[in-house]
C-alpha cells in the first residue's frame, strides 16, 4: 500500500478515534486539527489524567502515551514520535512544538521511591515535571527522567539517559566505553 494511502487512513482513523475519546473523556482529552496516529498506538487515561495534543502530531506504531493519577501530558504542534516510544505522566510532561523523537524513547516524570516504608511494593513515587523545548530532537533509545528541563533547539544523542536542566541550543551526548578482554 502506498505511503499516501496509509497516511490518509491513519488521519481518518485518528479523527474517528479522537472524536470518540473526546466524547468519553470530555476535557481530559483535547486535540486540535489534524492528527496522524497509527492505529497501533495507546492513549491511556486513569484517575483524572489528561492528554492535550497540538495540531499535526504524528505518532507511529507501538507508541504509548499515559496520563495517570491526575498527570498531564501536553504535546505541541508538529511533534513526531517514532516507533515504540512511551510517555508516562503522574504529574506533568510538556513536549514543545516541532519536537522529534527517535524510536524507543522513554519519558517519565516519576521514579519509584524505593526508600519508602514497604519498599517498591508500597507504590510510592518521587515526582518532577519534564519539559522538552520546541524544535528539539531526541535520538533513539533515550530515557528522559523526572525533573528534566531540555531547552529549545536541543539535540539528544541516541542512547542517553538524562535528567537535569539543559540550556537552549545544547547537544547532549554520553560517552560509552567498550572493553574487550580475553576469556
From TrEMBL:
Keywords: Transferase. It comes from the Bacteria. One of its GO terms (molecular function) is transferase activity. InterPro entries: Hexapep, Hexapeptide_acetyltransf, Trimer_LpxA-like_sf. The keyword Repeat does not apply. This is Succinyltransferase-like protein.
Amino acid at each position: 500500500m502506498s505511503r499516501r494511502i496509509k497516511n490518509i487512513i491513519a488521519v481518518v482513523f485518528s479523527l474517528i478515534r479522537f472524536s470518540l475519546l473526546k466524547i468519553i473523556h470530555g476535557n481530559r482529552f483535547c486535540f486540535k486539527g489534524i492528527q496522524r496516529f497509527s492505529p497501533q498506538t495507546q492513549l491511556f487515561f486513569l484517575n483524572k489524567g489528561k492528554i492535550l495534543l497540538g495540531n499535526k502530531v504524528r505518532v507511529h506504531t507501538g507508541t504509548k502515551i499515559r496520563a495517570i493519577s491526575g498527570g498531564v501530558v501536553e504535546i505541541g504542534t508538529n511533534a513526531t514520535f517514532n516507533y515504540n516510544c512511551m510517555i508516562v505522566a503522574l504529574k506533568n510532561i510538556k513536549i514543545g512544538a516541532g519536537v522529534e523523537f527517535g524510536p524507543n524513547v522513554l519519558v517519565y516524570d516519576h521514579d519509584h521511591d524505593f526508600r519508602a516504608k514497604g519498599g517498591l511494593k508500597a507504590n510510592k513515587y518521587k515526582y518532577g515535571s519534564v519539559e522538552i523545548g520546541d524544535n528539539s530532537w531526541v535520538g533513539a533509545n533515550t530515557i528522559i527522567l523526572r525533573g528534566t528541563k531540555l531547552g529549545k533547539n536541543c539535540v539528544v544523542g541516541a542512547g542517553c539517559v538524562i535528567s537535569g536542566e539543559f540550556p537552549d541550543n545544547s547537544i547532549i551526548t554520553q560517552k560509552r566505553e567498550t572493553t574487550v578482554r580475553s576469556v
